[in-house]
Amino acid sequence: MTHMEEFLSNISETESRYFADIFLCCDVEKTGKVPILKATELFRSANLSNDIIRQFNYKGHNYFFSGHVPALENKKYDWLDGRNLCREYCMDLVSMETQEENNLIFRLIQTNDVPYIWTSGRLCDFKGCEGRADLEPKNIFGWFWSANREKIQPTNQIPQGWGYNPWSRTGHKKQPQPDNAEFDINQTSESCLSVLNNVYNDGIAWHDVACYHEKPVVCEDNEELLNYVAATNPGIRL
């Protein structure tokens, strides 16, 4: 068992809302399908399944933005509910592990004037994370992509293979992100990763945000869920 799998299997009751309530699998009836989307020239895809448009594709993964789904366009979700929306479709909140993928999501936000979105980024600040020297200090080394359990590179430097640091240089406290600013206001930790669009006159950038805030989401195919459905439903078209 890896360190990440170990601490993800050891979650305290106080953090259970963000993990125990996550859908363990997707709706087979929705597998491989994305809700009917608005026809936008930039992101319309020729990849069709039962007349349902997958909004855009990157390196074999399908994505959709909830704001382009007529039934969802006026809805926002806290971090948990956003994950569960995605997981109904064998997807999860987006994880931007490369600069190319990050640029893709930033471009979607800029082109459509989206104020903010949730990602699958999460701070390891729950039971199982304590006493881990490799995660300290947590605001630098304690972030990971919950969709695939991959660690996020240190927040205080340009990620390896990138040309810029995606974390904002400023925020509510006028300090580089992540800054856990809301904790000083109401003792709520900023444990989830959101992309904000120029909220602090800082362009489009990553910010740590308290997980209860509601935002639209970008969903991305989740290989673990897709593989499970394929294995348990022989012949299903994904």
Automatic annotation (TrEMBL):
<protein>
    <submittedName>
        <fullName>Uncharacterized protein</fullName>
    </submittedName>
</protein>
<dbReference type="InterPro" id="IPR018378">
    <property type="entry name" value="C-type_lectin_CS"/>
</dbReference>
<dbReference type="InterPro" id="IPR016187">
    <property type="entry name" value="CTDL_fold"/>
</dbReference>
<dbReference type="InterPro" id="IPR011992">
    <property type="entry name" value="EF-hand-dom_pair"/>
</dbReference>
<dbReference type="InterPro" id="IPR016186">
    <property type="entry name" value="C-type_lectin-like/link_sf"/>
</dbReference>
<keyword id="KW-1015">Disulfide bond</keyword>
<dbReference type="InterPro" id="IPR001304">
    <property type="entry name" value="C-type_lectin-like"/>
</dbReference>
